Amino acid sequence: MTSRAPVFTSPFLYDELMSEDRELDVVVFGATGFVGRLVAAYLAGHAPEGVRIGLAGRSEQRLAEVRGRLGAAASAWPLLVADSADRASVAELARAARMVVSTVGPYRSQGLALVEACAAAGTCYADLTGEVLFIRDSIDRCHELAAGTGARIVHCCGFDSIPSDLGVLLLHQAARADDAGDLQDTTLVVTALKGGISGGTLASGMGQWDEMRASAQRRRQVEDPYALSPDRAAEPDLGGERDLDWVHHDSDLRMWTGPFLMAGINTRVVRRSNALQGWAYGRQFRYREVTGFGTSPAAPLLGGAITAGLKALQAGLVFGPSRTLLAPLLPRPGQGPSDKTRRTGFFRIEIHTRTATGARYLATIAAHGDPGYAATSVMLGETALCLALDRDRLPGRAGVLTPATAMGTTLADRLITAGHTLTTQPVTQ
Ligand SMILES: NC(=O)c1ccc[n+]([C@@H]2O[C@H](COP(=O)([O-])OP(=O)(O)OC[C@H]3O[C@@H](n4cnc5c(N)ncnc54)[C@H](OP(=O)(O)O)[C@@H]3O)[C@@H](O)[C@H]2O)c1
Predict the structure, then answer these.
(1) 14 CA to middle of ligand 1, Å?
(2) What is the pTM of this model?
(3) How far apart are the C-alpha atoms of 51 and 26, rounded to whole Å?
(4) Per-residue pLDDT tens for 100-124?
(5) Is 34 close to ligand 1, i.e. is its CB under 6 Å away?
Protein backbone atom coordinates (compact mmCIF):
# COMPACT_ATOMS: atom_id res chain seq x y z
CA MET A 1 0.00 0.00 0.00
CA THR A 2 1.37 3.44 -0.84
CA SER A 3 0.90 6.34 1.57
CA ARG A 4 0.31 9.86 0.30
CA ALA A 5 1.58 13.01 1.98
CA PRO A 6 -1.34 14.94 3.49
CA VAL A 7 -2.31 18.23 1.88
CA PHE A 8 -3.00 21.05 4.34
CA THR A 9 -5.38 23.68 3.11
CA SER A 10 -5.67 25.60 6.37
CA PRO A 11 -2.85 26.85 8.59
CA PHE A 12 -5.02 25.90 11.58
CA LEU A 13 -4.81 22.21 10.68
CA TYR A 14 -1.11 22.53 10.07
CA ASP A 15 -0.53 24.33 13.37
CA GLU A 16 -2.11 21.51 15.33
CA LEU A 17 0.19 18.97 13.73
CA MET A 18 3.38 21.03 13.91
CA SER A 19 3.06 22.82 17.22
CA GLU A 20 4.72 20.45 19.62
CA ASP A 21 7.58 19.08 17.56
CA ARG A 22 9.82 22.17 17.72
CA GLU A 23 12.52 22.73 20.33
CA LEU A 24 11.89 26.48 20.46
CA ASP A 25 9.07 28.96 20.06
CA VAL A 26 11.13 31.89 18.71
CA VAL A 27 14.63 32.23 17.27
CA VAL A 28 16.20 35.66 16.70
CA PHE A 29 18.55 35.33 13.70
CA GLY A 30 20.97 38.27 13.48
CA ALA A 31 21.08 38.71 17.26
CA THR A 32 24.62 40.16 17.07
CA GLY A 33 23.52 43.05 14.82
CA PHE A 34 22.31 46.47 15.94
CA VAL A 35 18.57 45.90 15.73
CA GLY A 36 18.89 42.17 16.50
CA ARG A 37 20.35 43.05 19.91
CA LEU A 38 17.42 45.40 20.57
CA VAL A 39 14.85 42.77 19.61
CA ALA A 40 16.57 40.16 21.79
CA ALA A 41 16.53 42.63 24.70
CA TYR A 42 12.84 43.35 24.12
CA LEU A 43 12.01 39.64 24.20
CA ALA A 44 14.14 39.10 27.32
CA GLY A 45 12.14 41.82 29.07
CA HIS A 46 8.65 41.08 27.72
CA ALA A 47 8.19 37.46 26.62
CA PRO A 48 5.91 35.56 29.01
CA GLU A 49 7.65 33.09 31.28
CA GLY A 50 8.10 29.70 29.69
CA VAL A 51 8.40 30.93 26.10
CA ARG A 52 11.37 29.10 24.59
CA ILE A 53 13.66 31.59 22.82
CA GLY A 54 17.00 31.05 21.05
CA LEU A 55 19.60 33.42 19.61
CA ALA A 56 21.16 32.69 16.22
CA GLY A 57 24.06 34.15 14.27
CA ARG A 58 27.44 33.49 12.72
CA SER A 59 29.56 33.44 15.86
CA GLU A 60 28.78 31.48 19.01
CA GLN A 61 31.20 33.62 21.00
CA ARG A 62 29.53 36.91 19.99
CA LEU A 63 26.09 35.41 20.57
CA ALA A 64 27.20 34.43 24.09
CA GLU A 65 28.35 38.04 24.67
CA VAL A 66 24.95 39.34 23.55
CA ARG A 67 23.14 36.83 25.77
CA GLY A 68 25.37 37.78 28.70
CA ARG A 69 24.06 41.35 28.53
CA LEU A 70 20.38 40.33 28.49
CA GLY A 71 20.04 39.47 32.16
CA ALA A 72 18.74 36.47 34.05
CA ALA A 73 15.66 35.85 31.89
CA ALA A 74 17.88 34.98 28.91
CA SER A 75 20.70 33.18 30.71
CA ALA A 76 19.60 29.72 29.53
CA TRP A 77 18.57 30.69 25.98
CA PRO A 78 20.19 28.29 23.49
CA LEU A 79 22.64 29.67 20.92
CA LEU A 80 22.38 28.45 17.33
CA VAL A 81 25.18 28.99 14.83
CA ALA A 82 24.02 29.59 11.26
CA ASP A 83 25.24 31.50 8.21
CA SER A 84 22.93 32.61 5.37
CA ALA A 85 25.53 31.39 2.89
CA ASP A 86 25.30 27.86 4.34
CA ARG A 87 21.88 26.50 3.32
CA ALA A 88 22.11 23.43 5.57
CA SER A 89 22.64 25.58 8.68
CA VAL A 90 19.71 27.81 7.72
CA ALA A 91 17.45 24.80 7.09
CA GLU A 92 18.32 23.48 10.54
CA LEU A 93 17.41 26.86 12.03
CA ALA A 94 14.04 26.80 10.28
CA ARG A 95 13.28 23.34 11.67
CA ALA A 96 14.26 24.29 15.23
CA ALA A 97 11.48 26.78 16.00
CA ARG A 98 7.83 27.62 15.51
CA MET A 99 8.90 31.01 14.22
CA VAL A 100 12.14 32.68 13.15
CA VAL A 101 12.56 36.43 13.34
CA SER A 102 15.37 37.67 11.12
CA THR A 103 17.34 40.89 11.39
CA VAL A 104 20.04 39.62 9.02
CA GLY A 105 20.35 42.25 6.33
CA PRO A 106 20.73 43.47 3.67
CA TYR A 107 17.95 40.97 3.00
CA ARG A 108 18.36 40.99 -0.78
CA SER A 109 21.80 39.44 -0.46
CA GLN A 110 21.38 37.57 2.86
CA GLY A 111 17.68 36.77 3.23
CA LEU A 112 16.20 34.41 0.63
CA ALA A 113 17.75 31.16 1.84
CA LEU A 114 16.05 31.51 5.23
CA VAL A 115 12.68 32.48 3.74
CA GLU A 116 12.82 29.41 1.48
CA ALA A 117 13.80 27.17 4.40
CA CYS A 118 10.95 28.49 6.59
CA ALA A 119 8.43 28.17 3.75
CA ALA A 120 9.54 24.55 3.18
CA ALA A 121 9.49 23.64 6.88
CA GLY A 122 6.12 25.26 7.68
CA THR A 123 7.84 27.69 10.05
CA CYS A 124 6.56 31.22 10.52
CA TYR A 125 9.00 33.99 9.66
CA ALA A 126 9.13 37.76 10.22
CA ASP A 127 11.67 40.41 9.29
CA LEU A 128 12.38 44.14 9.00
CA THR A 129 13.10 44.43 5.33
CA GLY A 130 12.09 47.51 3.39
CA GLU A 131 13.59 46.15 0.14
CA VAL A 132 10.85 45.84 -2.51
CA LEU A 133 13.00 43.67 -4.80
CA PHE A 134 13.72 41.16 -2.05
CA ILE A 135 10.04 40.87 -1.15
CA ARG A 136 9.09 40.47 -4.83
CA ASP A 137 11.58 37.59 -5.12
CA SER A 138 10.30 36.09 -1.88
CA ILE A 139 6.70 36.18 -3.17
CA ASP A 140 7.64 34.68 -6.54
CA ARG A 141 9.72 31.88 -5.02
CA CYS A 142 7.97 31.11 -1.73
CA HIS A 143 4.29 32.14 -1.68
CA GLU A 144 2.87 28.89 -3.07
CA LEU A 145 5.30 26.77 -1.07
CA ALA A 146 4.47 28.54 2.21
CA ALA A 147 0.73 28.44 1.48
CA GLY A 148 1.08 24.66 1.10
CA THR A 149 3.04 24.08 4.33
CA GLY A 150 1.04 26.56 6.44
CA ALA A 151 3.96 28.97 7.00
CA ARG A 152 3.15 32.64 7.54
CA ILE A 153 6.02 34.58 5.97
CA VAL A 154 5.73 38.22 7.00
CA HIS A 155 8.08 40.94 5.76
CA CYS A 156 8.17 44.59 6.87
CA CYS A 157 7.37 44.09 10.57
CA GLY A 158 8.93 47.35 11.82
CA PHE A 159 8.26 51.06 11.40
CA ASP A 160 7.96 50.13 7.77
CA SER A 161 5.28 48.94 7.34
CA ILE A 162 3.29 48.05 10.49
CA PRO A 163 1.82 51.52 11.28
CA SER A 164 0.66 51.96 7.66
CA ASP A 165 -0.64 48.43 7.22
CA LEU A 166 -2.48 48.10 10.54
CA GLY A 167 -3.73 51.71 10.37
CA VAL A 168 -5.46 51.12 7.03
CA LEU A 169 -6.85 47.76 8.20
CA LEU A 170 -8.39 49.46 11.25
CA LEU A 171 -9.92 52.18 9.04
CA HIS A 172 -11.42 49.50 6.80
CA GLN A 173 -12.90 47.73 9.82
CA ALA A 174 -14.32 50.98 11.24
CA ALA A 175 -15.99 51.85 7.91
CA ARG A 176 -17.33 48.32 7.51
CA ALA A 177 -18.79 48.32 11.05
CA ASP A 178 -20.71 51.52 10.16
CA ASP A 179 -21.73 50.15 6.75
CA ALA A 180 -20.04 53.25 5.31
CA GLY A 181 -18.81 51.66 2.07
CA ASP A 182 -15.39 50.95 0.59
CA LEU A 183 -12.33 53.07 1.32
CA GLN A 184 -11.42 55.48 -1.47
CA ASP A 185 -8.92 58.37 -1.19
CA THR A 186 -6.68 57.47 1.73
CA THR A 187 -3.62 59.47 2.77
CA LEU A 188 -1.10 58.76 5.50
CA VAL A 189 0.48 61.95 6.88
CA VAL A 190 3.55 61.83 9.10
CA THR A 191 2.91 64.71 11.51
CA ALA A 192 5.86 64.20 13.88
CA LEU A 193 8.99 62.08 13.71
CA LYS A 194 12.35 62.04 15.45
CA GLY A 195 14.91 59.27 15.16
CA GLY A 196 18.21 58.05 13.71
CA ILE A 197 19.51 55.47 11.25
CA SER A 198 21.77 52.40 11.49
CA GLY A 199 24.56 51.16 9.26
CA GLY A 200 22.52 48.09 8.36
CA THR A 201 19.61 50.21 7.10
CA LEU A 202 21.96 52.34 4.97
CA ALA A 203 23.61 49.21 3.54
CA SER A 204 20.18 47.77 2.65
CA GLY A 205 19.08 51.00 0.92
CA MET A 206 22.33 51.21 -1.04
CA GLY A 207 22.02 47.57 -2.12
CA GLN A 208 18.62 48.23 -3.67
CA TRP A 209 19.74 51.49 -5.34
CA ASP A 210 22.72 49.63 -6.86
CA GLU A 211 20.40 46.98 -8.27
CA MET A 212 18.04 49.62 -9.71
CA ARG A 213 20.94 51.40 -11.39
CA ALA A 214 22.19 48.15 -12.90
CA SER A 215 18.84 46.99 -14.32
CA ALA A 216 16.06 49.04 -15.96
CA GLN A 217 13.66 46.14 -15.40
CA ARG A 218 14.38 46.05 -11.66
CA ARG A 219 13.98 49.86 -11.50
CA ARG A 220 10.55 49.60 -13.15
CA GLN A 221 9.61 46.89 -10.67
CA VAL A 222 10.47 49.11 -7.69
CA GLU A 223 8.61 52.07 -9.20
CA ASP A 224 5.44 50.08 -9.91
CA PRO A 225 2.78 51.07 -7.31
CA TYR A 226 1.60 47.44 -7.39
CA ALA A 227 5.13 45.96 -7.19
CA LEU A 228 4.06 43.44 -4.54
CA SER A 229 0.71 42.46 -6.00
CA PRO A 230 -0.30 38.77 -5.93
CA ASP A 231 -1.90 39.28 -9.37
CA ARG A 232 -0.62 42.38 -11.19
CA ALA A 233 -3.05 42.06 -14.13
CA ALA A 234 -6.06 42.03 -11.80
CA GLU A 235 -5.14 45.29 -10.04
CA PRO A 236 -7.43 48.27 -10.73
CA ASP A 237 -6.29 51.03 -13.08
CA LEU A 238 -6.69 54.20 -11.01
CA GLY A 239 -4.51 56.45 -13.18
CA GLY A 240 -1.30 57.97 -11.81
CA GLU A 241 -0.40 56.58 -8.40
CA ARG A 242 3.19 57.77 -8.18
CA ASP A 243 4.60 58.65 -4.78
CA LEU A 244 4.85 62.40 -4.10
CA ASP A 245 8.14 63.81 -5.36
CA TRP A 246 8.25 67.38 -4.05
CA VAL A 247 6.57 69.83 -1.66
CA HIS A 248 3.01 70.68 -2.52
CA HIS A 249 -0.03 72.34 -0.91
CA ASP A 250 -2.71 69.71 -0.38
CA SER A 251 -6.12 71.37 -0.56
CA ASP A 252 -7.89 68.31 0.85
CA LEU A 253 -5.64 68.08 3.91
CA ARG A 254 -5.30 71.88 4.02
CA MET A 255 -1.57 71.76 4.71
CA TRP A 256 1.82 71.69 3.01
CA THR A 257 3.02 68.16 2.32
CA GLY A 258 6.19 66.57 0.94
CA PRO A 259 7.55 63.09 0.15
CA PHE A 260 7.81 60.49 2.92
CA LEU A 261 10.94 58.35 2.70
CA MET A 262 9.12 55.10 3.47
CA ALA A 263 6.23 55.60 1.02
CA GLY A 264 7.97 53.50 -1.63
CA ILE A 265 7.70 50.37 0.51
CA ASN A 266 4.67 51.09 2.72
CA THR A 267 2.25 51.87 -0.13
CA ARG A 268 3.16 48.62 -1.90
CA VAL A 269 2.62 46.61 1.30
CA VAL A 270 -0.79 48.22 1.96
CA ARG A 271 -1.90 47.57 -1.65
CA ARG A 272 -0.77 43.93 -1.31
CA SER A 273 -2.87 43.66 1.86
CA ASN A 274 -5.90 44.93 -0.06
CA ALA A 275 -5.35 42.41 -2.87
CA LEU A 276 -4.71 39.46 -0.52
CA GLN A 277 -8.10 40.17 1.09
CA GLY A 278 -9.85 40.11 -2.30
CA TRP A 279 -9.68 43.93 -2.55
CA ALA A 280 -11.76 44.20 0.63
CA TYR A 281 -10.70 47.85 1.13
CA GLY A 282 -12.21 48.58 -2.27
CA ARG A 283 -11.39 48.59 -5.98
CA GLN A 284 -11.24 52.42 -5.88
CA PHE A 285 -8.82 52.43 -2.93
CA ARG A 286 -6.23 55.13 -3.71
CA TYR A 287 -3.43 55.19 -1.17
CA ARG A 288 -0.52 57.56 -0.70
CA GLU A 289 1.89 58.58 2.06
CA VAL A 290 3.29 62.06 2.68
CA THR A 291 5.12 64.11 5.29
CA GLY A 292 3.02 66.94 6.73
CA PHE A 293 4.75 70.30 7.10
CA GLY A 294 1.79 72.22 8.53
CA THR A 295 0.07 75.44 7.53
CA SER A 296 2.44 78.23 8.59
CA PRO A 297 3.92 80.63 6.00
CA ALA A 298 7.32 78.99 6.66
CA ALA A 299 5.97 75.47 5.94
CA PRO A 300 6.82 75.38 2.19
CA LEU A 301 10.37 76.63 2.90
CA LEU A 302 10.90 74.13 5.71
CA GLY A 303 9.43 71.31 3.59
CA GLY A 304 11.58 72.32 0.61
CA ALA A 305 14.76 72.44 2.70
CA ILE A 306 14.14 69.01 4.31
CA THR A 307 13.14 67.41 1.00
CA ALA A 308 16.15 68.89 -0.82
CA GLY A 309 18.49 67.74 1.98
CA LEU A 310 17.18 64.16 1.86
CA LYS A 311 17.38 64.07 -1.94
CA ALA A 312 20.97 65.35 -1.85
CA LEU A 313 21.94 62.70 0.71
CA GLN A 314 20.31 59.97 -1.38
CA ALA A 315 22.06 61.20 -4.55
CA GLY A 316 25.35 61.23 -2.64
CA LEU A 317 24.85 57.64 -1.54
CA VAL A 318 23.76 56.37 -4.96
CA PHE A 319 26.99 57.30 -6.77
CA GLY A 320 30.23 55.49 -5.96
CA PRO A 321 32.68 58.43 -5.60
CA SER A 322 30.42 60.54 -3.34
CA ARG A 323 29.46 57.40 -1.40
CA THR A 324 33.14 56.85 -0.61
CA LEU A 325 33.45 60.47 0.57
CA LEU A 326 30.36 60.22 2.80
CA ALA A 327 31.21 56.78 4.26
CA PRO A 328 33.36 57.98 7.21
CA LEU A 329 30.49 60.25 8.37
CA LEU A 330 27.88 57.48 8.43
CA PRO A 331 27.24 54.56 10.81
CA ARG A 332 28.77 51.24 9.77
CA PRO A 333 26.99 47.84 9.94
CA GLY A 334 26.56 46.99 13.63
CA GLN A 335 26.27 50.69 14.59
CA GLY A 336 23.13 52.80 15.03
CA PRO A 337 21.45 55.57 17.01
CA SER A 338 22.66 56.17 20.59
CA ASP A 339 20.68 55.23 23.71
CA LYS A 340 19.60 58.85 24.08
CA THR A 341 18.39 59.14 20.46
CA ARG A 342 16.47 55.89 20.82
CA ARG A 343 14.90 57.00 24.11
CA THR A 344 13.95 60.52 23.03
CA GLY A 345 12.65 59.63 19.57
CA PHE A 346 8.96 59.40 18.64
CA PHE A 347 6.53 59.28 15.76
CA ARG A 348 2.96 60.31 15.15
CA ILE A 349 1.06 59.38 12.01
CA GLU A 350 -2.46 60.23 10.85
CA ILE A 351 -4.30 58.33 8.14
CA HIS A 352 -7.24 60.14 6.57
CA THR A 353 -9.77 58.27 4.48
CA ARG A 354 -12.99 59.02 2.62
CA THR A 355 -15.36 56.18 1.77
CA ALA A 356 -17.71 55.50 -1.15
CA THR A 357 -20.63 56.97 0.84
CA GLY A 358 -18.67 60.15 1.62
CA ALA A 359 -17.96 59.22 5.26
CA ARG A 360 -14.60 60.27 6.63
CA TYR A 361 -12.42 58.53 9.21
CA LEU A 362 -9.10 59.26 10.85
CA ALA A 363 -6.60 56.75 12.23
CA THR A 364 -3.86 57.86 14.62
CA ILE A 365 -0.77 55.74 15.15
CA ALA A 366 1.95 56.92 17.52
CA ALA A 367 4.68 55.67 19.83
CA HIS A 368 7.51 56.93 22.00
CA GLY A 369 11.07 55.96 21.13
CA ASP A 370 13.06 56.16 17.90
CA PRO A 371 10.67 54.79 15.23
CA GLY A 372 13.23 52.66 13.36
CA TYR A 373 14.88 51.14 16.45
CA ALA A 374 13.11 51.56 19.82
CA ALA A 375 9.55 51.40 18.47
CA THR A 376 10.60 48.90 15.77
CA SER A 377 12.04 46.47 18.32
CA VAL A 378 8.66 46.54 20.11
CA MET A 379 6.86 45.93 16.79
CA LEU A 380 9.14 43.06 15.73
CA GLY A 381 9.26 41.54 19.21
CA GLU A 382 5.46 41.56 19.48
CA THR A 383 5.20 40.16 15.93
CA ALA A 384 7.44 37.25 16.95
CA LEU A 385 5.30 36.50 20.03
CA CYS A 386 2.10 36.91 18.01
CA LEU A 387 3.15 34.44 15.29
CA ALA A 388 4.50 31.93 17.81
CA LEU A 389 1.84 32.12 20.53
CA ASP A 390 -1.42 33.53 19.13
CA ARG A 391 -1.94 31.18 16.21
CA ASP A 392 -5.53 30.28 17.09
CA ARG A 393 -6.43 34.00 16.90
CA LEU A 394 -4.78 34.81 13.56
CA PRO A 395 -6.51 35.06 10.16
CA GLY A 396 -6.62 31.64 8.45
CA ARG A 397 -4.04 32.42 5.79
CA ALA A 398 -0.57 31.20 4.92
CA GLY A 399 1.99 32.23 2.30
CA VAL A 400 4.01 35.41 1.84
CA LEU A 401 1.70 37.76 3.72
CA THR A 402 1.74 41.30 5.13
CA PRO A 403 1.47 42.30 8.80
CA ALA A 404 -2.24 43.14 8.37
CA THR A 405 -3.15 39.94 6.51
CA ALA A 406 -1.03 37.62 8.68
CA MET A 407 -1.86 39.01 12.13
CA GLY A 408 -4.48 41.74 11.78
CA THR A 409 -6.04 43.08 14.98
CA THR A 410 -4.33 40.45 17.13
CA LEU A 411 -1.05 42.29 16.55
CA ALA A 412 -2.75 45.69 16.95
CA ASP A 413 -4.03 44.59 20.38
CA ARG A 414 -0.55 43.47 21.38
CA LEU A 415 0.99 46.80 20.32
CA ILE A 416 -1.65 48.78 22.22
CA THR A 417 -0.91 46.70 25.32
CA ALA A 418 2.79 47.44 24.76
CA GLY A 419 2.07 51.20 24.88
CA HIS A 420 1.62 52.14 21.20
CA THR A 421 -1.35 54.23 20.08
CA LEU A 422 -3.58 52.80 17.32
CA THR A 423 -7.01 54.43 17.18
CA THR A 424 -9.68 55.27 14.63
CA GLN A 425 -12.53 57.77 14.77
CA PRO A 426 -15.19 59.09 12.42
CA VAL A 427 -14.64 62.67 11.26
CA THR A 428 -17.64 64.98 11.19
CA GLN A 429 -17.40 68.33 9.37
N1 LIG B 1 11.90 48.35 8.78
C2 LIG B 1 12.47 49.00 9.77
O3 LIG B 1 11.80 49.77 10.41
C4 LIG B 1 13.91 48.70 10.07
C5 LIG B 1 14.51 49.24 11.20
C6 LIG B 1 15.81 48.89 11.49
C7 LIG B 1 16.52 48.03 10.67
N8 LIG B 1 15.93 47.54 9.56
C9 LIG B 1 16.63 46.58 8.69
O10 LIG B 1 17.13 45.53 9.49
C11 LIG B 1 18.33 45.02 8.92
C12 LIG B 1 19.40 44.95 9.99
O13 LIG B 1 19.78 46.25 10.37
P14 LIG B 1 20.93 46.47 11.45
O15 LIG B 1 21.13 47.92 11.56
O16 LIG B 1 20.66 45.66 12.65
O17 LIG B 1 22.17 45.82 10.65
P18 LIG B 1 23.55 45.25 11.25
O19 LIG B 1 23.84 45.88 12.57
O20 LIG B 1 24.53 45.37 10.16
O21 LIG B 1 23.23 43.70 11.53
C22 LIG B 1 23.19 42.76 10.52
C23 LIG B 1 23.17 41.37 11.12
O24 LIG B 1 23.19 40.44 10.04
C25 LIG B 1 24.17 39.46 10.33
N26 LIG B 1 24.69 38.85 9.10
C27 LIG B 1 25.23 39.47 8.02
N28 LIG B 1 25.57 38.54 7.10
C29 LIG B 1 25.22 37.33 7.61
C30 LIG B 1 25.31 36.00 7.13
N31 LIG B 1 25.87 35.71 5.93
N32 LIG B 1 24.83 35.01 7.90
C33 LIG B 1 24.30 35.28 9.13
N34 LIG B 1 24.20 36.51 9.63
C35 LIG B 1 24.67 37.53 8.88
C36 LIG B 1 25.24 40.19 11.08
O37 LIG B 1 26.03 39.23 11.76
P38 LIG B 1 27.54 39.52 12.25
O39 LIG B 1 27.40 40.19 13.59
O40 LIG B 1 28.14 38.17 12.32
O41 LIG B 1 28.19 40.41 11.23
C42 LIG B 1 24.37 41.03 12.01
O43 LIG B 1 23.94 40.25 13.09
C44 LIG B 1 18.67 45.94 7.74
O45 LIG B 1 18.30 45.30 6.54
C46 LIG B 1 17.82 47.17 8.00
O47 LIG B 1 17.46 47.83 6.81
C48 LIG B 1 14.65 47.88 9.25
Answers:
(1) 31
(2) 0.95
(3) 8
(4) 999 999 999 999 999 999 999 999 9
(5) yes
